[in-house]
Amino acid sequence: MTRKVAVLVGSLRKESFNRKIAKAFEKIAGDKLSFDFVEIGDLPFYNEDVEAAGAPAAWARVREQVKGADAVLFVTPEYNRSVPGVLKNAVDVISRPYGKNNFSGKPTAVIASSPGALGGFGANHHLRQSLVFLDTPVLQQPEAYLGGVGNWFDESGALTNDGGKDFLTNFSAAFVAWIDSHSK
Predict the structure, then answer these.
(1) Which residues, 6+ apart, have CB-to-CB distance to 93 below 8 Å?
(2) Which end is more exposed in the chain, N or C (fewer Cβ atoms within 10 Å of the end residue's Cβ)?
(3) In what order do the strands lie in the sheet with 3-9?
């Protein structure tokens, strides 16, 4: 059975390593997972007053994408030992208004990456704090802190790092099993 995964990429940069990782992961997962990329760059900041006056169309779009998915995958860089503001805003938009948390119960995984050595450790754990509160079962093992990703891709964006391919292959198998064990 193919599972639909809502994918949120925390980087908006055109040549984002995180988007490249997500695309490589999509290829590796093959027909087991169907990826639906949730574009978050156009989301107005969450504001309860705006919600009360009528939610923007972009909010409704991302909420429906996550609501209709079987699982969620976050792929994010680390900014100042946390997640980028655009990703945190997306989490807030999708989990609100109160009582309408579209993440609740959805099996989730987090991949954090960095061109540096730490591989987004801070971002990964900071995001997990929010996901625990949002009642989202997050894949525990293998943890995904991908360091040195600046050298993982060729000029066309194809994944060329053998260790990265092996890791994403194992991560894919673990995520599929996680989704299957937590599906309603």
Answers:
(1) 43, 46, 59, 62, 63
(2) C
(3) 33-37, 3-9, 71-77, 108-114, 144-147
Query: Tell me, what's the pLDDT at 110?
Result: 98
Q: What is the pLDDT of residue 119?
A: 80
10-residue mean pLDDT profile of the chain (184 residues): values are 95 93 95 96 96 96 98 95 95 95 97 88 94 96 92 92 94 96 83
3-state secondary structure of 11: coil
- Upstream peptide bond of 97 is cis (omega within 30 degrees of 0): yes
Classify 159 as helix, strand or coil.
strand
Instruction: Yes or no: say if 85 and 115 are a contact pair by the CB < 8 Å rule.
Output: no
End-to-end CA distance of the chain: 14
What 3-state DSSP class applies to 78? coil
Distance in angstroms (rounded) separating the CA atoms of residues 56 and 43: 8
Residue 184, pLDDT score? 63
Strands of 52-131 (E only): list them.
71-77, 108-114
Residue for token pair 């093959």? 30
